[in-house]
Write a structure and sequence with these properties.
Elements: H1 2-8, H2 16-22, H3 24-37, H4 44-61, H5 67-76, H6 78-92, H7 100-117, H8 122-147, H9 151-170, E1 175-177, H10 183-187, E2 191-192, H11 195-222, H12 230-252, E3 257-258, H13 259-277, H14 279-289, H15 291-296, H16 301-327, E4 329-331, H17 339-349, H18 362-380, H19 385-412
Antiparallel strand pairs: 1-4, 2-3
Helix pairs in contact: 2-3, 4-18, 5-18, 6-13, 6-16, 6-17, 6-18, 7-8, 7-9, 7-16, 8-9, 8-16, 11-12, 13-14, 14-16, 17-18, 17-19, 18-19
Length: 416
């Protein structure tokens, strides 16, 4: 009887990821191929795209990979990139926010008028501008989540309304130049010229990743879950170190570490932690994956939606301040033009799905690098802006098509 009981004992299931790791490099290669066949492309297309862009423009111009050009790219991506991070949050809900360019513009206008015309401390003026943007986001979220007006309509109205408010706030002045060497002026123009700054940031980033990976692996093992082996963590850390210290070396060959890049990376890291490691982040993904299922799970859907629009508007305000710093002034047209479209395109090109429930804030960084690399490379060749718009539009369309095909492939593979 005992023999029968022993033979009938259930055999514990083996997680396939454990088998992959036991097979070493061959196992990871097989897993990578399986993901590609099932449409789980991740960041592979955008990384390959960045490499291709760099190789092509360097071969054509001979100047693309110079320290000065790469340093300029890190400056140009900060303002629109911060707006794009906010767009990632909205896209995770499966929605869109068309007002963020206008929110960036009116925020920069409020900050400039308060500090330059009314003598308010620049830090306080910037803080008031961000608070106004948070209120704008809450208003958008209220009409969307509580009243039931589609987000497209609410934010389209916001695009028009806040653009009008921007012009009203600026009044007859039209343009207000930044205070020389002031807070706003330094946002996009300050560099940590000590070489230790760039190398120190690289060391902190690599060490932070290593500690987080080791602690995460240990907690998973203690919970009986599959975890990355130390050898894999060491390899990933080594690759990150090469990238981080290579970037630090390149920046130090020019003017040093830009403050704008530090802020942008800090926002990306913090928001990535919020989305992946907090209950709030899981609620955002849950609402984006299915509103009714999230509501049945006890999630306050309305509050999640309102808070997401507040986050996106707040980040748009910060992005607007960086754009004002880069241009040297705040005016009635700040935030217009292709600012919003590039920010949305960056999030999508970087891998965030337009259909909700899938994406990460690193998408904003990767997507902005793609867009700005294309723009910078074409500028080096003297290509007109109209051609740049057409090429950026083609890249965006390609990213959306890839996202649609990926989703369809995953569904057919039983992973959608």
């Amino acid at each position: 009887m005992s023999e029968i009981s022993e033979s009938a004992a259930p055999i514990p299931a083996v997680d396939p990821r454990l088998l992959v790791r036991e097979q070493g490099l061959a196992g990871y290669l097989a897993e990578f191929k399986r993901k590609l066949r099932s449409g789980d492309l991740g960041s592979v297309p955008v990384v390959l795209g960045l490499i291709l862009i760099a190789v092509v423009f360097q071969a054509i111009t001979g100047k693309f990979l110079t320290a000065g050009n790469l340093s300029n790219i890190t400056l140009y991506i900060a303002g629109p990139g911060l707006i794009s991070v906010g767009i990632v949050f909205v896209l995770l809900l499966g929605e869109i926010d068309l007002s963020l360019g206008s929110v960036a513009g009116v925020s920069a206008a409020i900050s400039a008028v308060l500090s330059i015309q009314h003598g308010v401390n620049e830090y306080a003026a910037a803080g008031i501008a961000v608070l106004c943007a948070l209120a704008i986001g809450a208003l958008h979220g209220f009409f969307f989540a509580r009243i039931g007006v589609p987000a497209f309509v609410v934010t389209l109205a916001g695009l028009l309304g806040w653009s009008g408010l921007q012009g009203y706030v600026m009044g007859n002045t039209g343009t207000l130049n930044n205070i020389p060497n002031g807070f706003i002026a330094n946002l996009d123009n300050y560099f940590f010229d000590d070489v230790a700054a760039a190398y120190g940031l690289a060391a902190i980033g690599v060490a932070g990743y290593l500690v987080a990976a080791l602690l995460g692996a240990r907690s998973r093992r203690e919970a009986g879950l599959p975890a990355r082996p130390v050898s894999e963590i060491a390899l990933r850390t080594a690759l990150l170190a090469v990238l981080a210290f290579g970037a630090a070396y390149t920046l130090n060959q020019d003017r040093g570490l830009p403050l704008a890049l530090v802020v942008f990376l800090g926002v990306v890291v913090i928001t990535d932690f919020v989305l992946r490691r907090t209950s709030y982040g899981r609620k955002v993904f849950a609402v984006g994956g299915g509103v009714e299922a999230a509501r049945r799970a006890g999630i306050n859907v309305a509050w999640v939606r309102i808070s997401v629009f507040m986050i996106s508007a707040g980040l748009a305000a910060v992005g607007g301040l960086f754009i004002a710093s880069q241009s040297g002034f705040a005016d009635k047209s700040l935030g217009s033009g292709n600012v919003l479209m590039n920010s949305i395109a960056a999030a999508v090109i970087g891998g965030t799905s337009l259909f909700g429930g899938r994406g990460k804030t690193w998408s904003a960084l990767l997507g902005m690098l793609v867009i700005q690399s294309i723009v910078t490379g074409l500028d080096l060749q003297g290509i007109s802006q109209s051609i740049q718009y057409m090429i950026t539009g083609a890249v965006l369309l390609g990213a959306v098509v890839l996202d649609s095909v990926s989703r369809r492939t995953q569904k057919s593979a039983g992973r959608g």
